[in-house]
Write a structure and sequence with these properties.
heterodimer; A: about 550 residues; alpha+beta; FAD/NAD(P)-binding domain; Polyamine Oxidase, Chain A, domain 2; de novo design (two linked rop proteins); 3 domains; four-stranded mixed sheet; about 20% strand; globular; B: about 210 residues; mainly alpha; Cytochrome Bc1 Complex, Chain D, domain 2; about 0% strand; binds flavin-adenine dinucleotide
Chain lengths: ~550, ~210
């Protein structure tokens, strides 16, 4: 394996712990009826996971897909420039080309897709300062989704375009009971199955509540019927025995037997160690309680960039690659966009511009957008994600009974994801680190080789022998990716869950949703309540298209229906 | 600011699209495009990324700093929050590329950076007299002394650097001779206010 350079700064400084925020119920002193329900929720993970759902920008359902019914451009063939060929830009280009517009896509990178990026053998990972080439075997099944990996069915726009463009989906396991929860400081540093963590923690909590319900621990006394009903629920919830005691359960997995020989269950885990390891934090045992991570999830067969390639097949005008935008000049009757291409400066004059360039680049691109609009763009703070994908010579996890899903660990790698596809084939690509926001810096400071050795060391603690299975690997620090430098914008600190109703969002969000000068539309997941989800990017494109259509129709004296 | 051109002095015509189209400005070679991703178009600076304006910077100083980053003399100190953003970018360059990119940096043009920090330039003027010995009375720099032109970078960046020199996160590596000289000089600035004032004065030198 690769030698680890001087990592003293890395190992000495623990990445800021953004996960260990106290949950509401942990800070309450008196148990009220409402708190009781919260507690039950917490045991099931709902409120715990609610926090982490906010962490990924989850705010509200995005609603049904609009029927676009765009007015055909007709003989004038208005010109449109789309800046950036990510999900939002491609959606706009696809829809407007179909409506008869003359659409030119200008993309800074050597590839289309933006953050929707799947790497295979030979692909370039354009990290600034550390360009990598994907060294996986030349095999279409050995790929790594560096960006989007999970699609829930209620992301209606993702589903809509996958269906319309014949992009095949398959189920992706997110939660797995046989996968592990690992804390280096608990249970001798040995991984414990998710099943045991979940079953035992629910058992303990349920037992506690079973005892508490008739001890007047609540703000109002419970009626005997209430007590009975709650106890019945709690017994079922926590797998308690008839006396309301938790003595372990088959839900935690069987230690042995259960088929030909009698089943033996595990002893319950030590409750204190269990609580100490804060299993409810982060993206661990309760991942699937988050609506956007709720089972069943989906992924695109052959890699999540399938949707990108489907758009590219449909869009007829060649996309201009390697063409970073250099200036945007908004005029009364048009917009001029200057871009570099093949060592030359080029420009295009368009009737409308749809701009998906990450907002944090806009202060470095000369433009004459209105001042308040520019201030709004500058008010957004980029977030950050980091992933490592390792090609394993053998699917060792399947020998441990794990088929897909996630192990979570308190080490800086946070998670290990086992692929849901290619079961029982020889090799597989495993997500071997997934860091969020401020945690990413820890990995960014390493070279790609150092990151892989670090991930190997961490993986070794969960799966002894892990290192020997590693054949190839890539690391993708989104904060360092060329033309991207981040993922998940927010209006405050860079932590999306702190941005809720932030004053800045209130001040600028609807301004940025409207076209500057009637011609410059800002799009992308950055202009949504679902930043760092493709549904947000699709939603912003849809919003802008409807707005354009309303204006175009108004020009010819028509009103848009709906 | 509705029109890019409105009200701008003739010298700043470059910002007009005509100037762009007329190829008066350098286009980054493919291998150096990423410099403009952080430092902005024509290296105009981007405060969100904390990457300073570099437009027209003296090639000797650019080279020296890139070598310093590459040799891990600058940018790896634990308290240097933004230096670590830059350090691996220079580490990836060959010595030859460092020479080439310095020429590109020197050729770039953009409008002087807008002031952002709001210090007292009058007070700063008095403080600046000691700085002038090395950086020149107009802030133009002095290659012989290794001191850079201070009129190029953004004010917020100069503040960061003065704080870095003060805390020792820049200019304390034993091989950083010039950095150490600057570090000694910064001790004259006692507090944040003095730093803001002197930088505000430096900003006024830009338009002369
Ligand atoms: C690690 C990670 C995990 C994720 N997981 C999921 C998930 O499980 N499910 C999900 O739905 N979503 C997920 N997402 C989010 C999803 O990737 C994004 O929401 C979506 O891809 C954003 O699309 P976009 O078009 O808004 O922006 P982008 O994809 O960022 O597109 C912007 C484009 O602009 C280009 N550009 C930049 N500068 C310039 C310039 N100067 N000139 C021209 N072009 C320029 C860029 O190269 C890029 O192509 C994840 C993202 C990451 C990074």
């Amino acid at each position: 394996m690769h030698r680890v350079r001087n990592l003293s700064w890395a190992t000495g400084t623990k990445p800021p712990d953004i996960k260990n925020r106290p949950l509401p119920f942990m800070t309450e002193k008196n148990l009220t009826r409402r708190h009781f329900l919260n507690l039950v929720g917490a045991a099931g993970g709902t409120s715990a996971i609610y926090n982490t759902s906010l962490a990924l920008g989850l705010m509200q359902e995005t609603g049904p897909v609009a029927t676009l019914d765009l007015k055909q451009a007709g003989r004038q063939r208005k010109k449109v420039a789309v800046l950036g060929a990510g999900i939002a830009g491609l959606t706009v280009a696809y829809e407007l080309e179909r409506a008869g517009y003359d659409v030119t896509i200008i993309e800074a990178s050597h590839r289309i897709g933006g953050r929707n990026m799947t790497v295979r053998h030979g692909d370039i990972i354009d990290e600034m300062g550390h360009k990598q080439v994907c060294n996986f075997d030349d095999d279409p099944e050995l790929y790594f989704n560096c960006g989007p990996a999970r699609i829930p069915g209620h992301h209606r726009r993702v589903m809509h375009y996958c269906k319309e463009l014949n992009v095949p989906l398959q189920i992706k396991a997110n939660f797995s009971r046989p996968a592990y929860r690992h804390d280096p400081d608990k249970f001798d540093g040995k991984p414990v199955t998710v099943a045991r963590y979940v079953a035992d923690s629910r058992g303990f909590l349920s037992e506690l509540l079973y005892k508490a319900v008739d001890q007047n621990a609540f703000d109002e006394p419970l009626s005997p019927e209430d007590v009975d009903r709650i106890r019945a629920y709690v017994r079922g919830f926590g797998a308690l025995n008839r006396d309301g005691r938790y003595t372990g359960s088959e839900r935690g997995g069987r230690k042995s037997g259960g088929f030909i020989t009698p089943a033996k269950t595990f002893e319950p885990l030590d409750i204190e160690s269990l609580l100490d390891s804060q299993f409810w934090t982060g993206f661990g045992a309760f991942t699937s309680e988050n609506p956007d991570w709720g089972e069943p999830l989906m992924e695109i067969k052959g890699g999540n960039d399938g949707i990108i390639h489907a758009f590219a097949r449909e869009i007829s005008k060649p996309i201009i690659l390697n063409a970073p935008v250099q200036a945007i000049d908004l005029k009364d009757d048009s917009v001029n966009v200057v871009y570099n291409h093949k060592g030359k400066r080029e420009q295009i004059s368009a009737d409308f511009v749809f701009n998906s360039i990450p907002t944090h680049f806009m202060p470095g691109i000369p433009n004459n957008l209105p001042e308040d609009y520019q201030a709004g763009l500058a008010a957004l703070t980029p977030g950050n994600f980091f992933k490592i994908g390792l090609q394993m010579r053998e699917r060792f996890w399947e020998k441990e009974g794990i088929y897909g899903g996630i192990t979570s660990t308190n080490q800086p790698i946070n998670q290990i994801w086992y692929p849901s596809h290619g079961i029982h084939s020889q090799k597989g690509v495993v997500l071997s680190a997934y860091a969020f926001f401020a945690q990413c810096e820890f990995f960014e400071k390493m070279t790609p080789a150092e990151r892989i050795s670090f991930a190997a060391e961490c993986g070794e603690k969960v799966h002894p022998g892990y290192t020997d299975y590693i054949e190839a690997g890539v690391s993708v620090p989104w904060g360092r990716m060329n033309h991207m430098m981040g993922c998940g914008t927010s209006w405050s600190s860079g932590l999306p869950w702190e941005d809720g109703n932030s004053q800045l969002r209130e001040q600028y969000y609807s301004l940025l949703q409207q076209p500057a000068g009637g011609r410059h539309f800002m799009i992308g997941d950055q202009i949504s309540y679902h930043s760092s989800w493709q549904e947000g990017a699709f939603g912003s494109a849809e919003f802008a298209l409807l707005e354009l259509d309303r204006r175009v129709r108004a020009e010819s004296g028509e009103a848009r229906k709906g | 600011m509705r029109r890019l051109m409105s009200g701008l002095p003739v010298a700043l015509l470059w910002l007009s699209l005509n100037a762009f189209a007329a190829d008066e400005l350098p286009v980054a070679a493919e291998e150096f495009v990423y410099c403009t991703v952080c430092h902005g178009v024509q290296l105009m600076g981007n405060q969100i990324i904390k990457a300073p304006r570099l437009s027209g910077m003296e090639p000797w100083y650019v080279e020296k700093q890139l070598h310093n980053f590459k040799k891990e003399i600058r940018g790896l100190h634990g308290d240097d929050a933004f230096g670590y953003e830059m350090q691996p970018m220079a580490a990836a360059l060959t010595d030859e590329q460092i020479g080439e990119v310095a020429v590109f940096v020197n050729a770039t043009r953009s409008r002087p950076a807008t002031p952002t920090i709001g210090g007292d330039a009058e007070k700063g003027k008095a403080l600046y007299t000691t700085c002038a010995a090395c950086h020149g009375s107009n802030g133009e720099g002095n290659e012989a002394l290794g001191s850079p032109d201070l009129r190029i970078a953004n004010d917020w960046y100069l503040v960061t650097q003065l704080n870095n020199f003060r805390s020792g996160s820049r200019g304390s590596h034993p091989a950083d001779i010039n950095g150490m000289q600057m570090r000694a000089s910064v001790q004259l600035l006692n507090d944040d206010e003095a730093i803001r004032d002197v930088v505000s004065y430096i900003t006024t030198l830009r338009n002369q």
